[in-house]
Amino acid sequence: MKTDTSEARLIRVRGRVQGVGFRWSLAEQAVRCGLQGWVRNCGDGTVEALVWGGAEAVAALLFWASLGPPAARVDELSVERVDERPPGFQRLPDA
């Protein structure tokens, strides 16, 4: 019997994360890790993303998101388990 080892996480990143390429870099990292989901800028200055895929790939992306691209400063990374699993990976319009 096969077990599904995929995980889905909704993440919100606070700090200097808009205007520094965070959303674009996160999307690139997610695709590199083989993940699916979406990422968007939020009106409160945060970046929000839903990612899903293999547990190790999700963990790798969460580690990357805790640091972000060179110009970013991550003050807080919140992570929530979710059931949603959208296909592909998209950069959504700002929320």
TrEMBL record:
**Alphabetic keyword roster:** Hydrolase
Task: Output the SUPFAM superfamilies linked to this UniProt entry.
Answer: Acylphosphatase/BLUF domain-like
EC number(s) from the headed UniProt entry: 3.6.1.7
InterPro entries annotated for this entry?
Answer: Acylphosphatase (IPR020456), Acylphosphatase-like_dom (IPR001792), Acylphosphatase-like_dom_sf (IPR036046), Acylphosphatase_CS (IPR017968)
Instruction: Give the annotated active site.
Output: 23, 41
Instruction: Cite a single Pfam family from the UniProt record.
Output: Acylphosphatase
Q: Which reaction does it catalyse?
A: an acyl phosphate + H2O = a carboxylate + phosphate + H(+)
Q: Does Hydrolase appear among the keywords?
A: yes
Keyword Acyltransferase among record annotations: no
Report domain Acylphosphatase-like positions.
8-93
> Which portions of this protein are annotated as coiled-coil regions?
none
The kind of enzyme this is, by top-level EC class, is hydrolase
- Give the protein family: Belongs to the acylphosphatase family.
| Protein's name in the database | Acylphosphatase
Q: Which organism is it from?
A: Uliginosibacterium paludis
